[in-house]
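Hi Y.,

Following your request, here is the sequence exactly as I used it, all 374 residues.
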Amino acid sequence: MALLNEDLVSVREAAGLKPNDIFEKTRIPLNIIDEIERGTIFTNRNHQLTYIRSYVRSYAKAIGIHEDDIVEALDQHQADRYEGLLAQKYLHSEPLTDNVPDQKKSEDTAIQSAGGKPSSTATRGENEYSRPDPRKNYNQHTMPPPGLESVDWAGVGRKAAVGKGSPMIYAGLISILALIALLVYFLFIRPSGDPVVENNADSMQNGTELPVSVQPESDIPDEPVTPAADPQPEEELSPVAALPSAPVRPTTNPVSGALPDTLQIVLHAAIDKLEPVRVTSDVNNVRSPYWVEAGQAMRFDFIDSIRIEGQLTRMAIWINGNHFADIMEYSTGDRTLELSREALSQYAELFSTQGDFTSQTIDSPIEITDRPLF
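Below is the corresponding structure, written out as tokens. Let me know if you'd prefer a different format.
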């Protein structure tokens, strides 16, 4: 079965050209020329069909193949019915008419007798623009089309440079930048309707930390003193476990002992997806949006305070694997929730045992992921 790439190589060799000559004529990269000649360009999925056909047509034109012939050959190759069209026309062709040699010989003799220069015999495969018309009684040649070497590249560059200064281009760039600025504002900067959120957003943009409600030292309950003879090591909180067991309802009893230096909550899209929920933690002091799919959950760390803005009726909060059911008691607005170390220190049962993310009122999270870093 004839192969298109092999016929292209044969025509190039018959024309006395090398791959470097093709590169000089077309500026097709040498690795693309190599793919064309090996036929791998047709099976490389990194190339689109439009670029493949463009490269092959430029290659074929450089070795003297007419545009109509290479287009027909590509169509046949694409339909898996190529049968050596290029080889038949450009390697094993016959004269265009039976009487062309004799006619040419008589014409050349007449031209030589008049002191002229004989013309070459036109066969298929030569440049169509210089081929004599056998139906005429003369051997008039037409001018070939301009090649790459005849293009005024300096003039093209000057025209491109003039086009770059067009007011329409500047107006388009300004419109694009304005659109990007609006998107950034609405997605990451625009605060909600709560004035407290707006003040906090402004303070974060100015580089100041969020105000943290800290109880005066005089109001902080003293830590219970354990007997020296029987010291009890502080229970280390294990990492967040997988899923399933019994619900733990928080109480308002103070936690005996200090809370961990870094607290962690798991924000769960329990009813429907959160699109988005904005979380501001004193760990990074950035009001960032997060998109949480229904049933999914995400971990967030904080030290003294954390603010959550979003659809409170859709979410659940888990602390130490236990369901924190009193989130609405800490809402400062229809869509804002604020938790602090001081508030959580009143829920001893949340930290007394490690929960397993089960509850009688809501389903367990399908998957728990860490907060992505922006």
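The chain has a mean pLDDT of 74.

Thanks again,
Q.
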